[in-house]
Amino acid sequence: MQTFVRILDTVPVTHNVRHYRLERPANYRFSPGQATEVSIDRDGWRDEKRPFTFTCLPDADELEFTIKSYFDHSGVTNELWSLGAGDRLILRDVWGTIQYKGKGTFIAGGAGVTPFIAILRHLNASGKIAGNRLIVSNRTEKDIILREEFEAMEGLDVLWTLTDDPGSGLLQERIDAGFLERHVPDLAQNFYLCGPDAMVGDLRGLLEAAGADVANVTWER
Fold first, then answer.
1. 4, 65, 163, 216: which has the fewest Cβ within 10 Å?
2. What are the Cα distances from residue 115, in Å, to 95, 177, 204, 208, 211?
3. pLDDT higher than 80, residue 221
4. Are 205 and 114 in the same domain?
């Protein structure tokens, strides 16, 4: 099913990430962590579908996506950057497997944090954020998405780590077996993973090898 919606506004988040706030069609429902395939309602782009996660609360009056644009090639996210209020997107059926199953550690690589935004916002709004942890790896400090918002969630333990920003005072480590041993001592918990496919695959293997129960590891399948 296709649904056409207008962009209400775009809000900058980082140098290459924006919130896209949209009309919400009647009876269009999703759960935190779910996504839909999106196309741009322009000639030449309507059949170009990309999956994006809803980042607003499930009962919000407007829909929101938080999308990173890649300017090094002529793709959907690059074209999205040219859009503004009044332009239209095409949404489709809701899907997704990253659903909250209980307190645990969310591990993301870069824009892989986006499926966690609605989940953590919903937990925060309902007073259930305490006991959860967010670990995000970015290339540089300026790439961090919603840093202030996450750090303001009382009870959420946040750890940022960078891979290519020696001038920053933040942790400078890659998420590997040594990182997990140093920073994630409790393996008897839920884990939520999202990021590049290779990173997620490596993390699943590392967690299993370290002793985590694979039944407690959630990722986008």
1. 4
2. 12, 24, 17, 22, 25
3. no
4. yes
